[in-house]
Amino acid sequence: MTQWKSKLNLSDDADLHSDEATAKLKLGLFSYPVLQAADILLYQATLVPVGADQLQHIEFARSLARSFNSHVRSRPESGGNVFRVPWPALSAAQRIMSLKRPTQKMSKSDPDPKSRILITDTREEIHAKIKGAVTDSEPGISYDIDKRPGVSNLVDILRNVTSLSLAPEAIAKDLENMTMRAFKEMVADNVCQCLEGVHDRFEELMDPSNQTLNIEAEEGAKKARRVAIRTMRSVKNSLGLESFCASSNMWDREMIRESGTDNTIAEDSNTTIRYITTKEGTADAIQEALAGLNKQSSQVDEPETTKPQ
């Protein structure tokens, strides 16, 4: 991924095998794309809303899905494709730049709070931030990302918060005789108007007496777990495995019961690992293995075999 070089602060033509690159390498650089792909594929996502800078990660997830499906498709027990191949969902505003460093994208992690606009910002804060946005001393308004990145960024913001369907170059042409001060006021007014309803809705949802988010989060978690259980069962079956395991935090009894499975669960309370068996006799083998682990660790509690209530 080309993003690896930017994360390592290397030039585009740098060699990833060089001493300079390897000295900066961290596990997260490689594990993050894999974990992100797992989050997408586990829940059978079809469209993933991302920014343009995340397209490589989505393509990586698509590649993994196609590769796995191709690998297991020839197995008679696979039943066809296991993962859906996701597609990126890009908004018209694919990349908005920082108000203070217009050659870098706007980010909530930027240490300068004046570099970004938040939906929680008041009208006064939005006006102050855009008024202080970095532009240049050249008169008039024009659109040139290379020569006038700050002004061009404000034109892009104006285009995306209004219903203007013109190209940014055409918008800048219509405003070419406007002063920078008046232009910034115009951009700020339109941003405030665009975010007005969003800001009000945010405040409503964040009210401590409003339980909408808690209810939606709880119901959404249940739905997501059911999808995850089905996906993992499909993955294991496609590989011909007889059992699969996961941490008890995720594979709890309630979710297993809701999924409608009649499989046996062998639980070890010390290791907090649960095995959902799919063939007769596997539970006994698991119990025996867990008992051996307990003896090795000087723990005498025997695991119990129970069924979902």
TrEMBL record:
SUPFAM superfamilies: Nucleotidylyl transferase. Its main location: mitochondrion. Its EC number is 6.1.1.2. Gene3D superfamilies: HUPs, Tyrosyl-Transfer RNA Synthetase. Keywords: Aminoacyl-tRNA synthetase, ATP-binding, Ligase, Nucleotide-binding, Protein biosynthesis. The keyword RNA-binding does not apply. It is found in: Mitochondrion. One of its GO terms (biological process) is mitochondrial tryptophanyl-tRNA aminoacylation. Transmembrane segments: none annotated. GO terms for molecular function: ATP binding; tryptophan-tRNA ligase activity. One of its GO terms (cellular component) is mitochondrial matrix. Belongs to the class-I aminoacyl-tRNA synthetase family. This is tryptophan--tRNA ligase. It comes from Knufia peltigerae. The gene is MSW1.
